[in-house]
């Protein structure tokens, strides 16, 4: 048999492992769907329904069939992008997701840009000034970000910057006044309003996203700062740093020109994971800011046992993490010549 | 010794923060355009001397009565001044190219960077300089090696790249900190020979820091023997056999010799009194 070139076979291997992961993910969501202490039939027909109605729905849902058959039905549905209907909203789950996910992606993306934007430089600064005043201040600052509950900072933030100073918009994705003004194309409000040329809506959306995104970003910057600091300290102890200094490079050029390049790989990984966590776990801030996002959708469906929606959400969270891992794998190869 | 020394060190003492005793104490020596070996066991403070001269010990307290490098007072010089000295007039070859080269940058670029840090030059110019220097350290196909990453070259090649990087700017003083300890025995002599030839050719003052007495004896003009942070003896390399100090004698006696006696080598005895200051001034 002819050998494949190493790069191709590596890519194939990666593709294979992704497929296996996805299959495992589907099994997991299916099992979660069956094991939840919720009776899906009861959730649909209600407490008052007669036995006959219950039985009919039970059969309609295919719950009388063997487990493996149910799984393949589920698999087939997922492949056709048919995720069923949500009991709570009465709409196809897919349609719901297409509404809530972009809202969260918008929020999380701004948050991670903010979080990495302050977390990485602060971490580097703390490492370079280890055990000095700047290091201590940065550590306290990031510890605060880590330990203040986000629903609390959210409310304080609203009180200060919205009610008090009036610098930012309040809750929701935009002012009530603009709702329904912009045609929904991608459901990313910033993109939609820009496409429609509605710059006032765009401004309102920016105004509304700034506060929750920076609060979320602050809380995830705490983690990013700490990790950056320790990655950086690790690199600054390496011998090639001495080489750079011996060559006559200043501390600043040594740190940014030599050490920083070597922590990019690790940084990409933790920033990607922090981003994933923001996508799935922004429930609290979404609640405080009445942000119609993914976290809220998942939580409210979970609480009433809306299984179709919950299973789909779990699947999407899994997909997000698989995707982010894939992305950081790819960036590894860009940033580190040893992995090529 | 030669006329005006390149380096004049009087009573150099280095105390790391938190350490009970100084790592280096009252070390004095002068260096002309010659090759000085500093020999000692691990922890004797020999590497610390090198780093103190480069002022690369931010967390340590460095004191001396005098630490003069040509026209630069190394004790009082500002960091800005030191940036102009390091890499241009004084440089240092580190031990293991596996760690001392930045793993994610091309070898040649790292060599060229040493040039561009001190000389205003275009990228192409620096590249040409670096390739010429790689050629001078006897790397075949320097153009190809220029584009390799450190993990793609062997240890001997990596150390030659290191030497190229540190000699590219024609410094007056090079500190070689165990330059061949990490290399295979087979390439050790070859690399040393390259270093030695360049040092002689360019008239560079060399401080060779090593734990290997034989190596220092063959490649240096003078030898300082360090023990527990102090210089216990200073000799011309040729006079090493006439060493007086019991530590030096012990080191020499512990060297195996081809054709020598098959008896077990003597164990190196240590005497606490060696760590006390003594009259043997330099």
UniProtKB/TrEMBL annotation, chain A:
Locations listed in the record: Cell membrane
UniProt keyword annotation of Acetylation present = no
Q: What is its main location?
A: membrane
- As recorded in UniProt, coiled-coil segments are none
In the bilayer, the protein is annotated as:
Multi-pass membrane protein
Query: By what name is this protein known?
Result: Dipeptide transport system permease protein DppB
Q: Which UniProt keywords apply?
A: Cell membrane, Membrane, Transmembrane, Transmembrane helix, Transport
Keyword match Transferase: no
Q: Name one GO cellular component term.
A: plasma membrane
Q: What gene name is given for the protein in this entry?
A: dppB
Which sequence ranges are marked TM in the entry? 12-32, 107-128, 149-168, 267-289, 309-332
Q: Name one Pfam family in it.
A: BPD_transp_1
Gene3D superfamilies under this entry?
Answer: MetI-like (1.10.3720.10)
Ranges for domain ABC transmembrane type-1 come to 101-332
Q: Which Gene Ontology MF annotations are present?
A: dipeptide transmembrane transporter activity
What PANTHER family does this protein map onto? D,D-DIPEPTIDE TRANSPORT SYSTEM PERMEASE PROTEIN DDPB-RELATED (PTHR43163:SF8), DIPEPTIDE TRANSPORT SYSTEM PERMEASE PROTEIN DPPB-RELATED (PTHR43163)
What family is reported?
A: Belongs to the binding-protein-dependent transport system permease family.
InterPro entries hit by this protein:
BPD_transp_1_N (IPR045621), MetI-like (IPR000515), MetI-like_sf (IPR035906)
UniProtKB/TrEMBL annotation, chain B:
Report the locations given in the UniProt record.
Answer: Cell inner membrane
Q: What family name appears in the similarity comment?
A: Belongs to the ABC transporter superfamily.
Q: Name one GO molecular function term.
A: ATP hydrolysis activity
- What Gene3D superfamilies does the entry give? P-loop containing nucleotide triphosphate hydrolases
User: Which stretches of sequence are listed as region Disordered?
Assistant: 262-282
Q: Give start-end positions of Polar residues composition bias.
A: 273-282
Which keywords does the record carry?
A: ATP-binding, Cell membrane, Membrane, Nucleotide-binding, Transport
Source organism per UniProt = Pseudoprimorskyibacter insulae
Major location category of this protein: membrane
GO cellular component entries: plasma membrane
- Record-annotated membrane-spanning stretches: none
Pfam short name (any one): ABC_tran
Annotated protein name in UniProt: Putative D,D-dipeptide transport ATP-binding protein DdpD
User: What is the protein's membrane topology class?
Assistant: Peripheral membrane protein
The residue ranges of the ABC transporter domain are 7-253
């Amino acid at each position: 048999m002819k050998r494949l070139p190493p790069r191709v076979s590596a890519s194939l291997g990666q593709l294979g492992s992704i497929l296996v992961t996805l299959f495992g993910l589907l099994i997991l969501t299916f099992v979660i769907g069956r094991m939840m202490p919720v009776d899906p039939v009861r959730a649909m027909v209600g407490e008052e329904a007669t036995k006959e109605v219950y039985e009919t729905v039970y059969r309609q849902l295919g719950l009388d069939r063997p487990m493996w058959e149910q799984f393949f039905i589920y698999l087939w549905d997922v492949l056709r992008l048919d995720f069923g209907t949500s009991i709570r909203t009465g709409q196809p789950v897919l349609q719901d997701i297409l509404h809530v996910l972009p809202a969260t992606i918008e929020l999380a993306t701004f948050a991670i840009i903010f979080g990495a934007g302050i977390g990485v430089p602060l971490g580097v600064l703390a490492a370079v000034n280890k055990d000095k005043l700047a290091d201590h201040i940065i550590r306290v600052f990031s510890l605060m970000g880590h330990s203040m509950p986000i629903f609390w900072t959210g409310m304080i933030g609203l009180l200060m910057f919205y009610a008090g100073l009036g610098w930012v918009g309040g809750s929701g994705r935009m002012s009530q006044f603009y709702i329904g003004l912009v045609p929904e194309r991608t459901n990313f409000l910033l993109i939609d309003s820009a496409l429609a040329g509605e710059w006032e809506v765009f401004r309102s959306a920016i105004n509304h996203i700034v506060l929750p995104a920076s609060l979320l970003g602050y809380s995830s910057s705490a983690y990013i700062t700490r990790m950056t600091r320790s990655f950086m300290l690790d690199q600054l102890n390496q011998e090639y740093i001495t080489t750079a200094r011996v060559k006559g490079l200043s501390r600043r050029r040594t740190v940014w020109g030599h050490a920083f390049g070597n922590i990019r790989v690790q940084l990409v990984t933790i920033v990607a994971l922090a981003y994933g966590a923001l996508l799935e776990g922004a429930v609290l801030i979404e609640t405080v800011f009445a942000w119609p996002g993914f976290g809220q959708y998942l939580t409210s469906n979970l609480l009433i046992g809306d299984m179709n929606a919950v299973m789909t959400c779990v699947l999407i969270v899994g997909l997000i993490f698989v995707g982010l891992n894939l992305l950081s794998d790819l960036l590894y190869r860009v940033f580190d010549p040893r992995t090529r | 010794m030669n006329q005006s020394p390149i380096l004049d060190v009087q009573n150099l003492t280095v105390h790391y923060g938190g350490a009970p005793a100084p790592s280096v104490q009252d070390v004095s020596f002068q260096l002309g355009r010659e090759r000085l070996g500093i020999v000692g066991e691990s922890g004797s403070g020999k590497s610390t001397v090198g780093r103190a001269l480069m002022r690369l010990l931010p967390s340590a307290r460095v004191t001396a009565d005098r630490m003069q490098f040509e026209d630069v007072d190394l004790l009082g010089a500002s960091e800005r001044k030191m940036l102009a000295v390091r890499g241009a007039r004084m440089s240092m070859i580190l031990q293991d190219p596996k760690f001392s080269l930045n793993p994610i940058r091309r070898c040649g670029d790292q060599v060229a960077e040493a040039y561009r840090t001190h000389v205003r030059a275009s990228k192409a110019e620096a590249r040409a300089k670096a390739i010429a220097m790689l050629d001078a350290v006897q790397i075949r196909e320097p153009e190809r090696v220029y584009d390799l990453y450190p993990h793609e070259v062997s240890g001997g090649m990596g150390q030659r790249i290191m030497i190229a990087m540190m000699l590219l700017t024609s410094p007056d003083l090079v500190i070689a900190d165990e330059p061949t300890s990490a290399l295979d025995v087979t390439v050790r002599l070859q690399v040393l020979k390259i270093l030695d030839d360049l040092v002689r050719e360019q008239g560079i003052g060399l401080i060779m820091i090593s734990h290997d007495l034989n190596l220092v004896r063959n490649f240096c003009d003078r030898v300082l023997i360090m023990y527990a942070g102090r210089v216990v003896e200073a000799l011309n390399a040729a006079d090493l056999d006439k060493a007086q100090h019991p530590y030096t004698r012990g080191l020499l006696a512990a060297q195996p010799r081809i054709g020598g006696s098959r008896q077990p080598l003597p164990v190196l005895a240590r005497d606490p009194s060696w760590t006390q200051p003594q009259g043997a001034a330099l």
